[in-house]
Amino acid sequence: MTPTQLLQKWLEARLPAEARGWLAEAAAKIRRGSDTDLYRSVSLVTRKVGKADLALSGQELQQAQSAREEWDPSDWSLDQAARVYLLLVSGTDGATFLRRLDQLCDTADIGELVAFYRGLPLYPDQPRYVLRAAEGIRTSMKAVFEAVAHRNPYPSEQLPEAAWNQMVLKTLFIGSTLHPIVGLDRRTNPELARMLCDYAHERWSAGRPISPELWRCVGPYARGEMLRDLGRVLEKGTDPERTAAALALASSPDPEATGLLWAYPELCSAVNENKVSWQTLANPV
Amino acid sequence: MRFIDPHIHMSARTTDDYERMAAAGIVALIEPAFWLGQPRTQVGSYIDYMSSLVGWERFRAAQFGIHHYCTIGLNSKEANNAALAEQVLEILPRYLVKEGVVAVGEIGYDDQTPVEDKYYRAQLALAKEFDMLVQVHTPHRDKKSGTIRSMEVAVEMGVKPEHVVIDHNNEETVQDVLDRGFWAAFTIYPNTKMGNERMVEIARKYGSNRMFIDSSADWGVSDPLAVPKTARLMLDRGIAAEDVEALCYGNALKAFGQSGQMKEEHWLNPAPVDQRMLFEGNSVLRGQVPRVGEQPSVAERMDSVAFK
Fold first, then answer.
1. Average pLDDT estimate for A169-183
2. Do B99 and A208 touch (CB under 8 A)?
3. For A146-169, what is the mean pLDDT?
4. What are phi and psi of B91, to 5 degrees?
5. Is B256 in contact with B69 (CB distance < 8 Å)?
6. What is d(CA B34, CA B32) in angstroms, rounded to the nearest whole number?
7. Taking CA atoms, which of A93, A225, B180, B233 is between 20 and 30 Å from B12?
């Protein structure tokens, strides 16, 4: 099944008859192709279908993954699903789709922006939406930013390195978390590692805490001064920070990193025996 | 006691205001679309302004635990630029159906020109078409006759009085508004016009039925704490607590709640998606500890912040 068919099926299974009827009627109108019908219906969604959680089952989430690689609608709500569904049923070419999406975003409320950005991986002609995604990352509204950055395969597939690096750094900057970013390890690069270490120094100078997750993207490219930063965290950090530094050092191919880690046998064995991971660090029991 | 400020222009206010408002017990507010102190020259300026009312400003308020609603419309001052007004009228429907838009507003008369009349009527027609409430700004000059005219035209256009809030009332207008079955809102202005002492006397005389108060705070000299401060003064002067609650919370909720877009459960029991999305961020707080989840109780706030 396609993502559009899945969204329709999930919505139909969850909506009461009246809302289901409205959605079917709206979809039929939109298929006939008028911009006005699309804009009006998309904005009416919260009034018609509400904002309960979509709450997909494990099986439904698997269907999502089969329909679109790495698509993760696990924390979508009904209004988000319905808005993306209505966008998708318009069934137009990429250029028209982008024009309408830009129009919609220009006059969107917060809830709409979140839905539109969550839908990015499902839109036709994927490379067209890079500027749109970058615009979403530029926002100061955390929920909108996270709609692009979290549980969304679009950035890792389409963003150029500079935009990707800004996204990762900004995630930490606004107090959000790195682990829900799809493709985080795959897209790590030396420039990002440098930016993150500079950021760590800024925070240290200001006497402010640093997310242990920061070191995840530093590890693979840590060398020289960066290794000394990790050494400093191992020596003086909080427990989660020390675990993070150990995990980062373990991911570095540099022999000097291995040497640093060996000085802390307990941490070293916790890492080697998989007792700790970036996941356990993000979600402590 | 909880408060609603059903008329305040937060785009013109600072985070200090939000912080004090939250601390004083304001749980929700309505930001009417109006002008920027000087007339806009492009329809694009309206688009960005209205987008900010349903976007950035809503987010900013949420950071302080305050629920932000708005009204959307072409204000009477700027209606006098007819060429621009036409373009604005065309984009209004894009915003009227958005989540959290509780009425068409603030619309009405300023100088009571023929052009103002034309666009007031056009927007009353929109309110009918979209089955929406109307929030009416009454003129500062020639107030009484402007207020009566606003109501007569609304009725003439087929809008029900109980769907219309007549704002900026005073001692001279209130009786007419209540007699005709409209909601009567009072703006508490510091120093001039409707001061909070006068409001106490109005409450004493008229009770609390179909009346409520607001601050209309904007970029001019105004007080975003006008609602909680007036509540305290009313209590101190012996107005019954039920009346104060109705004037400063309950009636605004009843009036604008008719839109279906503003519900008490939004702040008492918010939807999980809103809790996830809006009320946990801290980007406006820039490194301060977020207040969410650790605010003092309302009673403490009233004593400690707003009234000393």
1. 95
2. no
3. 97
4. -90, -15
5. yes
6. 6
7. B233
> Which residue in the set B99, B274, B281 is minimally distant from A142, CB to CB?
B281
* pLDDT for the residue numbered A2: 96
pLDDT at B308 over 60: no
CB A157 within 8 A of CB A167: no
Selected residue of B52, B87, B92, B99 to mutate for chain A interface (largest A Cβ count, 10 A): B99
CA distance B284 to B18: 11
B269: contact with A, CB 8 A cutoff? no
Q: Are the Cβ atoms of A77 and B273 closer than 8 angstroms?
A: yes
Confirm or reject contact between A53 and chain B (CB < 8 A).
yes
What is the residue-averaged pLDDT of chain A? 95
Q: Which residue would you say has higher pLDDT here, B76 or B277?
A: B76
For helices A94-106 and A78-89, angle between their N-to-C axes, nearest 10 degrees: 140
Which of chain A's residues have a Cβ under 8 Å away from the Cβ of B91?
Answer: 107
Q: Does B273 score more than 90 pLDDT?
A: no
Residue B242 identity (one-letter amino acid): E
Q: Identify from B15, B273, B283 which residue to disrupt to test chain A contact, counting A C-beta atoms within 10 A and taking the largest count.
A: B273
Q: What is the pTM of this model?
A: 0.90
- Cβ contact A246:A268 at 8 Å: yes
Q: Nearest 5°: phi and psi at B30?
A: -120, 125
Integer-rounded Cα radius of gyration of chain B: 18
Q: In degrees rounded to 5, what are phi and psi of residue A223? A: -155, 160
Show the CA angle centred on residue B150, arms to residues B145 and B156, nearest 5°.
120
Reported residue count of chain A is: 285
pLDDT digits 0-9 by tens, A19-70: 999 999 999 999 998 899 999 999 999 999 999 999 999 999 999 999 999 9
Burial A97-130 (b: 16+ CB within 10 A, else e): bbebbeebbebbbbbbbbbbbbbbbbbbeeeebb
Q: For residue A132, give Cα distances in angstroms to A41, A110, B72.
A: 22, 15, 27
If you average pLDDT over residues B107-127, what whole number do you get? 97
Q: Tokens 């707080």, residue?
A: B285
Share of chain B above pLDDT 70, in %: 89
| pLDDT at residue A240, as a whole number | 95
Q: Which of A150, A170, A179, A149 has the alpha carbon at shortest distance from A283?
A: A179
Which stretch of DSSP H or E encloses residue B105? strand B101-108
